[in-house]
Write a structure and sequence with these properties.
The protein has helices spanning about 1-20, 40-65, 80-115, 120-125, 140-155, and strands at about 20-25, 35-40, 180, 190-195, 200-205, 210-215, 220-230, 230-240, 250, 255-260, 270-275, 280. By secondary structure, the chain is an alpha+beta fold. The strands form two sheets. Strands 3, 4, 5, 6, 7, 8, 9, 10, 11 and 12 form a ten-stranded antiparallel beta sheet that branches. A two-stranded antiparallel ribbon has the order 1-2. Mean pLDDT is about 80; it is low at about 120-130 and about 155-160.
Length: about 290
C-alpha cells in the first residue's frame, strides 16, 4: 500500500509540474483574444535559468571587452602593466633629452655672451667622445720638415745637457736671517749652505710651492722639502719644529719651520739649506743674497 501511495504521489508531482497553463491576453473593449501561450512550471523554470545565464554572459562580456574592467579592484592585466613600463621609459628618455637640450642652450648663451670659448666641443655637445691619446696625423710636408730639423739639430751639444741653466727673473726669498757658516761645496758632498741663526727663528719658503716631504732623519733632524715650478726643489734641514704637512701649498716668504739643532750632524742652532734644479744641486748664493 505504501509503495502504491509513493508512486501515486510521484505521478501526481510530475503531472502537476508538467501541467500546462494557458496565459491569454484579451482586448478590453471587444473581449477578443489577442495573444496567448501555454506554459508549464517546468518550462517556466527552465526559461528563467536560461534568461539568468544569458544575463550573466552578457554582463561578463561587457566587462571584459570594455575599459570598465580597469575599475574593478585588483584587476590589472599584462597589457596595462606593459603600457605603464613603456610610459616610464618614455618619461626617462624625455627627461634626459631635456637635460641635454638645456646644457646645449646654456653653452650657446655662454658663447653669445662671450663667457665661453668658441670651440668647446666637449662642453657644447656632451655626447661627443674625445680621445685624449689621439694624435693628429702628420702630412708629408710636416714629416719632411721634422726629419730635416732633427738631422740639423742632432749635433747641437745643447740638447745633450741634462741640466741646463735655471731660468732668470725668478725672485727667491732668503730662507732665514743668519750668517753663512759653511758654503756650498759640491766636491766635498756639501750640497747646500749652513746659516747660523737664532733658535726658533722662522724658516721661510724661498719660492711658491708644495710640500712634498716632511720627516725626521737621524743625521739631519727634522727635514722639509718643497717642490717649486720651473724644476726647482728646496730642502730645509735641522729644524726644531715643522709647521707644514705633505701636500700643503705655500707661498714665497711663508713660515714653514723653526730653526733648531736637531740631528747628529748639527753642532748648534742653524739651518742647512739646499737648492736643486732638475735633479742637480745648485749653489744658493748664486740666486739669493744672504
Amino acid at each position: 500500500m505504501a509503495n502504491k501511495q509513493q508512486k501515486k504521489n510521484k505521478k501526481s508531482f510530475w503531472r502537476q509540474v508538467r501541467f500546462k497553463y494557458k496565459l491569454s491576453f484579451f482586448n478590453e473593449d471587444t473581449l477578443e483574444e489577442v495573444w496567448s501561450f501555454r506554459l508549464s512550471q517546468l518550462s517556466a523554470f527552465i526559461s528563467l535559468l536560461l534568461f539568468a545565464f544569458l544575463i550573466i554572459v552578457v554582463t561578463a562580456l561587457f566587462i571584459i571587452k570594455t575599459p570598465i574592467r580597469n575599475y574593478l579592484p585588483g584587476y590589472l592585466d599584462v597589457e596595462v602593466r606593459k603600457e605603464i613600463v613603456q610610459n616610464a621609459l618614455r618619461a626617462d628618455s624625455l627627461e634626459r633629452m631635456i637635460a641635454i637640450q638645456a646644457l646645449y642652450l646654456e653653452n650657446v648663451s655662454g658663447i653669445l655672451a662671450g663667457t665661453l670659448p668658441l670651440d668647446p666641443t666637449r662642453t657644447i655637445d656632451s655626447l661627443a667622445q674625445v680621445n685624449p691619446n689621439y694624435n693628429i696625423p702628420r702630412g708629408k710636408e710636416e714629416e719632411e720638415f721634422v726629419r730635416n730639423f732633427e738631422e740639423e739639430e742632432k749635433y747641437n751639444l745643447t740638447v745633450l745637457n741634462p741640466n741646463p741653466a735655471p731660468p732668470e727673473g725668478i725672485i727667491f726669498y732668503k730662507p732665514a736671517n743668519g750668517i753663512i757658516s759653511a758654503p756650498f761645496e759640491m766636491e766635498k758632498g756639501h750640497y747646500g749652505i749652513d746659516l747660523v741663526a737664532a733658535p726658533n727663528e722662522s724658516v721661510l719658503a724661498t719660492l711658491d710651492g708644495t710640500v712634498v716631504f716632511t720627516g725626521f732623519d737621524a743625521n739631519y733632524g727634522n727635514v722639509i722639502q718643497l717642490q717649486h715650478r720651473n724644476g726647482f726643489l728646496s730642502i730645509y734641514k735641522h729644524n726644531e719644529l715643522l709647521l707644514k704637512r705633505v701636500g700643503d701649498h705655500v707661498v714665497a716668504g711663508e713660515a714653514i719651520a723653526l730653526v733648531g739643532n736637531t740631528g747628529d750632524l748639527s753642532t748648534g742652532p742653524h739651518l742647512h739649506f739646499e737648492l736643486w734644479y732638475r735633479g742637480s744641486p745648485v749653489n744658493p748664493q748664486e740666486y739669493i743674497a744672504f
